Amino acid sequence: MRRYGLVALLVVTIGALLGGGALWLLGAVAAADIAWAVGTLAALLPAAWWLVSALWRGRLGVDAIAVLALGGALAVQEYLAGALIGVMLSTGQILDDYALRRARRDLTALYERAPRTARRYEDGTPHVIPVDEVRLGDLLLVPTGETVPVDGVVRRGVALLDESALTGESLPVEHPEGESVPSGVVNAGGAFEMRATVTAAESTYTGVVRLARETEADSAPIVRLADRFAAWFVPATLLVAGLAWLVSRDPVRAVAVLVVATPCPLLLAAPAAIASGLSRTARHGVVVKGGGALETLGRARTLVLDKTGTLTVGRPQVVDVVPAPGRTRDEVLRLAAAVDQMSSHVLASAIVRTARERGLELPVPGDVREEPGSGTSALVEGAKVRVGKARTASRSEWEETQRARAALDGAMTVWVSVDDAVAGVILLRDEVRGDAGRTLRRLRSAGIDRVVMLTGDRAEVAESVATVLGIDQVFAERSPADKVEGVREEVRRATTAMVGDGVNDAPALAAADVGVAMGARGSGASAQAADVVLTTDRIDRLADAMEVARRSRRIAVQSAGVGIGLSLAAMIVAAFGFLPPAGGALLQEGIDVAVILNALRALAPGLGARQRVSGRTDALLRRFESEHAELRPPLESIRDVADALTSPPAPGTLAELRRVHDFLTEDLLPHEHDEEERLYPAMGELLGDSEATVTMSRAHAEIDRLVTRLGRHIELAEPGGPHPEQLDDLRACLYGLYAVLTLHFAQEEEAYFSLATSGRD
């Protein structure tokens, strides 16, 4: 309705201005004045209503100047100036209305795409039902081109999904059987079946829609700043106009001052810039609950981060399998995974997943017994296998060594015993997110001065993560109440943003100046308490949002400040009589339109935005990342062979060395050479610096050198194994290869693979 009213106002004011101009050219001066007076009056009435509405809400806005200018133009019979002000007022309102509608378009698209129906299987046949009727456990069909109705798990087929509505990513993402899929994304591949894990009301997309509806641009502090401008700008304008009238004895000068000081559309540029920023963050998969949160995010100087699920991936991963003397790594992992197939524990899932990734055949266990908090036991191939906490109070030297190593690495331990004898230990750790390091560097460059980790985890685990990421200060082993106090302490020092994902983070998020929730897998409590919600499980979206927030705030302040400065200059010129009311109206129209258009720049990406990866480069990154996942497990064999080198060499040592060498020359080196020829040039082009990959190339050269050295040792060895004098250098060669490859893989995954846009974490 408002839109049509503004269009009608624009038509009337422009019609009056043009009609009066035509009459004036025909010599009908009196009739022209009447037409212009009608246009002035048509603008004065709604302007007066806007002023009364603002005063009713306790706000004195710059609409007061517009009302005085229009009324003054009628009083001194400057009808042309009044008509020009009317056109200026109506066009400014139209432009601002367009700006807000254009800026909110992405937010509106979120709930317009919300799923309305689902296809549920009943008696073996899919039937269309309202999405609100979907219940936990329902089997659903998702045909090609339709929206996933609720969160669930793929049960048959492969889901190729367009997730742009949630994440902003343009390329489809593949989800195999057994993998979770979020609601609100579109099936870009063949039809698949899924099992609902939540109802529609609890689904991811419903939460995003709810958050989007809470987003309002007019609550931003930067918008209230415009009112604070008005608090001094209106009296200053009246003072200048009054002095011009008093000194010159000419009321026309006062009207001219009021005309050029009519910046109603000008200060509306501030909410336009903020709304544009909200639109940009929505495209990045970030829902900001209002302009106030966006503006505060743009002022943040301190960042407080939870660890688990925020800086780390939020699920344990096997980092090593250490066999007891007389056992092998694969044997220990295979037995443990066989038992853990029957357990729902999060550590059990990680062990089973690792065993399957390594291609191990898992036997079916019998007589499975799970003791909560202790472990699981079962009969596997005739032996009693137990997986869980250590039971024996007396510990061997080997066990004490593994415990000490786990403590140093900040790893969790799962002990595996066979017939009550320790067979080995599996070390698990919640790995640091691949994009965490890059994100923190971007946040620092965007203006974050201090990064703090606040976690309930053990100090040694937290410190190890902080060291890798370069975090300024760590507060570990903190309860939810301690977290709240820690956040409040940071708030007292500087504007603070807090990022978390768990239920225990909700109070701390509420205590921060701006709370940020990892909404993709985080709790509903944390998303409810937060001001900003990342709808995808990627922390780099926070850096995107902060860069958008800072740019939007800067443009909003710039638009208001520059516009008011130009208006003040024009007021002085008008006060001295060098700018008549009609000319002042035209000048002010130009200033207002220019500033509002400047505010719309916030819709465009800034110079510091995240690197945009082309489809070809993205495919390369995903391909080499996948190869990394396949090559990582065999890397452990390099260290195993080094550990097993004895003097004299054990039988089979030479065969093991040859097996490792074959893996290196046939699988690993071709991968590294292909990276050098295809990936590194693409990365140099993306990063704008051909020297950006030099250090990675140097690592490739070192890997080549060590593999060649290993080959020469094998050539020099006798059929029974390497010579005793070769053993020390062989160990150094193998350990060196393991260390260089492990570090090199980690560097590539953080520096390059984290730039990929189409995949999942």
From TrEMBL:
Q: Which UniProt keywords apply?
A: ATP-binding, Cell membrane, Membrane, Metal-binding, Nucleotide-binding, Translocase, Transmembrane, Transmembrane helix
Annotated localization = Cell membrane
One Pfam family this sequence matches: Hydrolase
**Parts of the chain that traverse the membrane:** 6-27, 34-52, 229-248, 254-274, 555-579
Checking PROSITE patterns in the record gives:
ATPASE_E1_E2 (PS00154)
Specify the protein's topology with respect to the membrane: Multi-pass membrane protein
Keyword match ATP-binding: yes
CDD domains the UniProt entry points to: Hr-like
| Listed InterPro entries | ATPase_P-typ_cyto_dom_N, ATPase_P-typ_P_site, ATPase_P-typ_TM_dom_sf, ATPase_P-typ_transduc_dom_A_sf, ATPase_P-type_domA, Cation_Transport_ATPase_IB, HAD-like_sf, HAD_sf
- What are the residue boundaries of the P-type ATPase A domain, all occurrences included? 114-212
All residue ranges annotated as the Hemerythrin-like domain in the record: 622-755
PANTHER family the record matches: CADMIUM/ZINC-TRANSPORTING ATPASE HMA2-RELATED, CADMIUM_ZINC-TRANSPORTING ATPASE HMA4-RELATED
Q: Which family does it belong to?
A: Belongs to the cation transport ATPase (P-type) (TC 3.A.3) family. Type IB subfamily.
Q: What is this protein called?
A: Heavy metal translocating P-type ATPase
